[in-house]
Write a structure and sequence with these properties.
heterodimer; A: alpha/beta; D-Maltodextrin-Binding Protein, domain 2; 2 domains; ten-stranded mixed β-sheet; two-stranded antiparallel sheet; 12 strands; B: mainly alpha; MetI-like fold; 14 helices
Chain lengths: 409, 291
């Protein structure tokens, strides 16, 4: 009996000595992604290094509150953080300098420099994503003459959708407009920069009026079920649409299931250029981290080419290390990667960042405007645009943050 | 020792209150306190008491639509369900052979969540769903119809009514069945003897005696109908906004708990109002009859 107790105490001691760090992340929130990260990425890490990592998925509000609280308390439980650029940037003051950590692969200076602010390297890029168009090969037969799918314009897109409608009688263009879709990203990161050159500054300009008129015309060829869609993979697989726009992670499933039926192409360009959002997620260590060394080991592990490719396979976010680009397996992921690189390399690219640090009401402002002019079809009203623009500017003023790129670059 | 404890605690007279104390404490901490905190979210901002959140709620572009659809759903669903549930309850109570079997069939939808029910009906009404497939196979339509779209808002409304009707009628039915079984067989026998049969018996004897159960069923069903959310979300998204849905979006999408709470407080006030109306106008005089 005594021996059993002794063994029990020893075992407990051994378990307690194994390092256990908490990783708080605003990414990997869908359950499938979280499970993937825990089972396929963190479990092998624990086996390799003996450090067991607890992944804590939180919404931005809790993320922000927790970092602030631990910084003010001077001590905390969170050892390492993962968030989008816009999630981490407002907390540069509470994050440690991670320039001493060598990532597991080569991260280009263009990306690394995004994580450098307030005089220190605030985060190390982990993964990137973007939103692009996915096209069923059946639609290629209706491509307008003279249009190149790798460099479409919004006018080309309109003509393409119209061709399909006139030939088949069906509206085969899809933009996710459901309540939990990423429609607001399309509006502020793709439409606005492509037509007006800015995300916020030209909200109520004449170019914006042209843009809304264009969308009213385009909407005639969009599948009427669009306001019920939160993601485009199911409509693409069901062939309810042949041309879709969405986040790479939300179209991945469609391409993975039928890689020979779809191609991924860059989003169209408007009069001001080809606006698109570059979503960059990074890893940071708070000043109050209880175990910065274990955190550094995790960061190094996550930026090795093998794990970067695993992340692409399981989560749909793209690698940031150069060595991983060549290691993308052929098939569905290669299809997506081709589209992503083509978009990033377009000569007329306008790179946009997601607004960070302001109240999420900005999403409502863009979406309400879309609802009023496009879904309800009311005539485009410059006075309403001005009203919404004022509210939008107030949000940025209240939070005291600068406009996101390209407005405030 | 016992004598002293009894004197101090006053257990002789105060025992019931002491026994109630744990439950009251539990309710107070885990229900009342959060309730008051949530209500105060709608009225108190950073600068103290303010009605700004209610103003924001009322000036929201979807507010009046949400109010309209919430009422329309409640007013359409509840009477329909009560009538159907009454028919179902009468069938079950009639002792017809096989009525037990119907009980299981009717009660099946009670076992699934409302979101699951919404998704089931989504698979019927969606563009490539069962309804379109059946109509297409029968040659009635040439091309699938977009039922659940902004252009077909009436049909979208109807699909929610159908889904809710399928899902929740059993709740009302169960209450009415219990109420029917409480009616003493004596009244029914006397009615038969005095010549009231069939429909007359139901209208003049059964229904008045069923009033208390009807009242409970109406109150419960109306409060839940005002809160319809998951089914609307699954079938219509934000095409037909409802108050509960808007509260959800303000909290989780736009991250403004104060306006979300304002919506919730409004919903609570409407529910209390309707309950008061039912209690006042559906007062049963069964006590008089039974006395």
């Amino acid at each position: 009996m005594k021996r059993l107790i002794l063994l029990g105490v020893l075992a407990f001691g051994l378990l307690a000595s194994a390092q256990d760090i908490t990783w708080m992340s605003t990414q990997f929130t869908p359950i499938a992604e979280g499970e993937f990260v825990r089972n396929q990425i963190l479990a092998p890490f624990a086996e390799e290094t003996g450090i067991s990592v607890e992944l804590l998925n939180v919404e931005y509000a809790e993320f922000a509150a927790r970092i602030e609280a631990e910084y003010q308390a001077g001590a905390g439980e969170i050892a390492v953080l993962c968030g989008l650029h816009g999630d981490l940037a407002p907390f540069a003051y509470a994050l440690a300098d991670v320039s001493g950590i060598t990532p597991g692969g080569t991260i280009g200076s263009a990306l690394m420099s995004k994580g450098y602010m307030a005089g220190k390297q605030v985060y190390i890029p982990l993964m990137q994503a973007t939103y692009l168009m996915v096209v069923n090969v059946k639609a290629m037969a209706y491509l307008p003459v003279g249009a190149c799918p790798w460099a479409l314009t919004y006018d080309d897109l309109l003509a393409w959708a119209r061709n399909i409608y006139e030939a088949t009688g069906e509206q085969k263009l899809g933009i996710p407009a459901g309540p939990r879709s990423l429609l607001h990203r399309f509006i502020h990161g793709y439409l606005y920069p492509s037509f007006t050159g800015y995300q916020v500054l030209a909200f109520d300009s004449a170019a914006a009026v042209d843009m809304w008129n264009y969308m009213q015309e385009l909407w005639q060829y969009v599948n009427p079920a669009a306001p019920t869609w939160d993601a485009m993979d199911t409509p693409l697989l069901a062939e309810e649409v042949w041309i879709a726009w969405d986040h790479t992670a939300r179209v991945k499933e469609a391409i993975v299931q039928r890689p020979n039926d779809f191609i991924a192409i860059p989003s169209p360009a408007g009069p001001a250029g080809r606006g698109f959002i570059s979503v960059l997620a990074g890893l940071a260590i708070p000043e109050t981290s209880p175990d910065p060394d274990a955190a550094a080991q995790l960061i190094q592990y996550l930026t090795t080419p093998e794990v970067q490719v695993k992340i692409l396979e399981g989560v749909g976010f793209f690698p940031v290390v150069a060595e991983a680009a060549g290691a993308v397996p052929a098939g569905a992921l290669q299809v997506l990667a081709t589209g992503v690189s083509a978009q990033a390399a377009s000569p007329d690219a306008i790179v946009c960042f997601i607004p960070g640090g302001i109240s999420d009401e900005y999403k409502k402002i863009y979406r309400d405007t879309f609802h009023k002019f496009v879904i309800q079809g009311e005539p485009v009203d410059a006075a309403y645009l001005r009203e919404q623009a004022t509210r939008l500017r107030e949000l940025y003023l209240e939070a005291g943050v600068a406009y996101p790129a390209p407005d405030g670059s | 020792m016992n004598e002293r404890v009894r004197k101090v605690l006053g257990t002789d007279t105060l025992l019931p209150y002491w026994l109630l104390l744990p439950t009251l404490a539990f309710i107070g901490v885990f229900f009342l306190m959060p309730l008051f905190k949530a209500i105060s979210l709608a009225f108190y901002g950073e600068d103290g008491f303010t009605l700004a959140y209610f103003q924001k709620m009322v000036s929201d572009v979807r507010f009046f639509d949400a109010l309209k659809f919430t009422f329309l759903f409640a007013v359409t669903i509840v009477p329909l369900q009560v009538v159907t549930a009454l028919a179902m309850a009468l069938l079950l109570n009639s002792g017809v052979r096989g009525s037990r079997f119907f009980l299981y069939i009717f009660a099946l939808p009670l076992g699934i969540s409302d979101l699951a029910a919404g998704l089931i009906w989504l698979s019927v009404f969606t563009h490539r769903g069962f309804l379109n497939s059946a109509l297409y196979a029968l040659g009635v339509i040439e091309r699938p119809i977009h039922y659940l779209s902004y252009q077909n808002i009436n049909f979208t409304f109807l699909s929610v009514v159908v889904a809710e009707h399928w899902r929740a009628t059993a709740i009302v039915m169960v209450i009415l069945v219990a109420g029917l079984q409480m009616i003493s067989k004596d009244y029914l026998e006397v009615a038969e003897v005095l010549g009231a049969r069939g429909w007359k018996k139901i209208w003049y004897v059964v229904l008045p005696l069923l009033k208390p159960s009807l009242q409970s069923a109406l109150i419960i069903r109306t409060i839940f109908a005002l809160q319809t959310f998951a089914v609307v979300l699954a079938l219509a998204g934000q095409i037909t906004p409802v108050l509960a849905g808007e509260a959800y979006f303000w909290q989780f999408l736009y991250r403004n708990p104060n306006v979300a709470s304002a919506y919730a407080v409004l919903l609570m006030v409407i529910a209390i109002g309707m309950t008061w109306i039912y209690l006042r106008y559906l007062k049963s005089r069964v006590e008089v009859i039974r006395g």
